[in-house]
Amino acid sequence: MNDSDGGAGHAAPRKRADARRNERVLLDAAAAVFVASGVEAPVRDIAARAGVGVATIYRHFPTRADLIVAVYRHQVEACAEAGPALLASGATPHAALGRWINLFVDFLVTKHGLAAALRSGDAGFDTLHAYFLDRLVPVCAQLLDAAAVAGEIRPDVDAYELMRGVGNLCIGADSDPRYDARRLVELLIAGLRLPR
User: Most buried pick, 9, 99, 103, 156, via CB within 10 A?
Assistant: First the structure.
């Protein structure tokens, strides 16, 4: 009897872990589709990318607004977790910063696509910007500090200022195919390097 109770006790956490993993797959798929096709992309495209039925998406996220908020939070968390992982990867701190900024640009592309929804007046959206800053500015600061301590970049770069600059370079990238925001961001990050 104890064995079956123990088995039942283990089945619930496993199911929760599976449910969390499935939700991450849905959110990754939604983020990728939003980056490629915009926030108004058909739910069937997200379902196809995730390898699930449309009903599964609606079961997890009953409205598009629910999905948008979840993607936003998911991407913020992925960006926040990537910073320390990149620093621990063995790359130079400047290279880690560059890779993190690339992830941040992907997030910004999605975020700019979500802008209309985020300004819709829904109270649930009001706290997202503060959440974004609270989670990502310290990560950017950690990457900048590591690169400055390593003597790779100038020490006076402010994380918020850099993130705002990157964000400004990304504005309009979706409306002009000749505008390459990623190239400009790469030039900005390269420009942080101290001369050798």
Answer: 99
The residues near 5 (Cβ < 8 Å, ≥ 6 apart) are: none
Q: What is the rounded CA–CA span in Å between residue 94 and residue 183?
A: 17
Q: Model confidence over 74-90: pLDDT tens digits?
A: 989 999 999 999 999 99
Q: What pTM, to 2 d.p., does this model score?
A: 0.78
The CATH number corresponding to 1-62 among 1.10.10.60, 3.50.50.60, 1.10.8.420, 2.60.40.1930 equals 1.10.10.60
User: Which CATH fold would you assign to the domain 64-196?
Assistant: Tetracycline Repressor; domain 2 (1.10.357)
**How many other C-beta atoms are found inside a 10 Å radius of the C-beta of residue 171?**
13
Query: Where does the pLDDT of residue 48 fall: very low under 50, low under 70, confident under 90, or very high at 90 and above?
Result: very high
Domains in the chain: boundaries: 1-62, 64-196
Q: List C-alpha distances in Å: 183 to 2, 69, 152, 175, 178.
A: 61, 28, 20, 16, 11
CA 138 to chain centre: 15
Model confidence at 189: pLDDT above 50? yes
Q: Residue 55 corresponds to which tokens in the numbers above?
A: 């009903």
CA atoms 95, 96, 101, 104: torsion sign: positive
